[in-house]
Write a structure and sequence with these properties.
about 80 residues, 3 helices
């Protein structure tokens, strides 16, 4: 898929997740939206992981770590 449609979906879910984390303070929804954003690879999805530049790998790994941190925060805040 060589269309930039994936990039638009990625950015849309990214913005929605950031909005839900910062404005709504709904960290579980923010984690799920940011996790869905990872499904839409903003880079070339036909490129294998080993062929990607280091900065693309780092971006995706940091994004995944942010999703895990938000999920942990949501579980910790809602734990009673």
């Amino acid at each position: 898929m060589k269309t930039p449609f994936n990039k638009y979906l990625y950015i849309g879910f990214l913005v929605l997740g950031i909005y839900q984390a910062t404005v709504s303070k709904d960290y579980l929804q923010a984690a799920s939206q940011l996790g869905i954003a990872l499904a839409f690879d903003p880079f070339n999805p036909e490129q294998t992981w080993n062929d990607r530049p280091i900065w693309q790998k780092a971006t995706l790994i940091i994004h995944l770590a942010l999703v895990a941190a938000l999920f942990g925060l949501a579980i910790g805040i809602n734990d009673k």
